[in-house]
Amino acid sequence: MQTKVLSAKMYVHGEWVSQTETFDVFDPQNNEVIARVPKASAAYVTDVIDRAAEAFHSISSWPVHERINVLNRAADYIESHRERYAYTIAREGSKTITEARGEVSRAVQTIRISAEEARRIKGETINFDQKEGSENRTGYYFRFPIGVIAAITPFNDPLNLVAHKVGPALAAGNPVIVKPASVTPLSALLMAEALHQAGVPRGFLAVVTGSGSELGDALVKHPEVKMVSFTGGTNAGDRIAQSAGRKKLSMELGSNSPVIVMNDADLHDAVKSTVSGAFAAAGQNCIGVQRVYIQEESFQEFASLFAERTQELQVGDKQSEWTDVGPLINEQEAVRVEEWVQEAVNAGARILAGGRRNGAFYDPTVLTDVPVDCRIYKEEIFGPVVILDRVETLQEAVSRSNDVDYGLHAGIFTSNIDQAFYAVHHLHVGGVMVNDSSDYRIDEMPFGGTKDSGLGREGVPSSIQEMTEPRVVCFKLTQPWSL
């Protein structure tokens, strides 16, 4: 039976709008067309930004209690329609239905955290009398919204990563314009549906769909866009930084996450955690495990357990409750992963599990003896492949963990607190997970990386800090005794 193709609309200035041109959205599992979505032009996006700026400047104040209510109502709406949201995530992207349900739950939590943090946007009093001659001054600072936020989101978490930009932006009182990944725009439009139903003010939210190469400059160069929040690849991040000019940038750009397993670790726990961390979302996860450094004495047992557990994973239909690993986002990506693995094998790497492609599906793959100059060792694979490697000491493991251009998350398994703290203080990353894989995050914590992994920090409170600015107020009092 032929799939019914959805005719979707964009959300702009409180209305659902069409465009003359459209593009198709495919299910990567079978390449079926599941939706036709409007294709916006650069000129149209410029007009959307102008209208968002006008809306922002026309509202003298959007009270905090109203922001809280809008966000909480949106979270309630998503929660009450969770199965439709999960089905959409799984249909347009790579996640299994089980993973998609988990993402819906996280998105609800992200929006609720945003509502809570809206009430915590506070300033402090300032002791001006710390400066000689300022004994008759008193004051404080408060934080205010900066204006229009441009949010550019990727395909791998098509709902929750939108929530991570929209939630804090609205909590801070800013309009936000979302440009979702062209392969997964439907989840972002569902987020707009929830916020529309919740009563978001006209002009304070837009979701525009189209090609990033066509819309990117219009979004990031516009003088009314005061901040660009981007999650995606390093090359695209570099282009945005060059185009944006003098404005705030928040960028989460990817990784090549290491995990260290010491001899004193609980190997069964380490295997369970790292297998999950490596192959969730078909490995298309910026904090997913890519390299595992195992101390020599434990290597053979760990590698055997890891390969065995990997081979137990079920690859197949995303909508099945029994599936562990779905397809990559398209066949082109699966071919790329296949080529990188073959390049490593040609250079001397050994395959312990997996290594087979079927269309957009690539079996969870475990490699060892990978030469350090292979692309799959140095770059972000963004696919279901993990490298196991031997090390003699913790110092060697940390040094090799740092020997890439990325630094988002890392993990270490050990029962020795001294070893844990050595890793915490010497790994050049944005987050160290002790007795857990790199693939651990809660939506409230600061999230971001070092080196080529990005600029700034996400996580709701951190994002709100970036999306507001301090304004200092100082009173010079005419009567000294009034203090």
What is the molecular shape? globular
Low-confidence stretches: none
The CATH topology of the largest domain turns out to be: Aldehyde Dehydrogenase, Chain A, domain 1
Number of strands: 25
Instruction: Please compute the radius of gyration using only Cα atoms.
Output: 24 Å
Derived structural class:
alpha/beta
CATH architecture assignment name of the largest domain: 3-Layer(aba) Sandwich
- Range of strand content: 15-25%
Count structural domains.
2
Query: How many helix segments?
Result: 15
Average of per-residue pLDDT values: 96
Q: Write down the CATH class of the largest domain.
A: Alpha Beta
Span of the ends, CA to CA: 79 Å
Can you say what the CATH homologous superfamily of the largest domain is? Answer: Aldehyde Dehydrogenase, Chain A, domain 1
Strand order of the largest sheet: 15-18-19-14-13-21-22
Q: Please bin the fraction of helical residues.
A: 25-40%
Taking the sheet with the most strands, its summary is: 7 strands, mixed
Domain Aldehyde dehydrogenase: 16-473
Function: Part of the sulfo-TAL (or sulfo-SFT) pathway, a D-sulfoquinovose degradation pathway that produces sulfolactate (SL). Catalyzes the oxidation of 3-sulfolactaldehyde (SLA) to sulfolactate (SL).
Pfam family, one: Aldedh
Protein name: 3-sulfolactaldehyde dehydrogenase
Structure description:
This protein is α/β, with parallel strands linked by helices and 483 residues long. It is 39% helix and 23% strand. The strands form seven sheets. The protein has a seven-stranded mixed β-sheet, sandwiched between helices. Strand 11 (225-231), helix 8 and strand 12 form a beta-alpha-beta unit. Helix 3 crosses helix 4. The longest helix has 22 residues, at 97-118. It is globular. The protein starts with 5 loop residues before the first strand and ends in a 7-residue tail after the last strand. The model has no long low-confidence stretch (mean pLDDT 96).
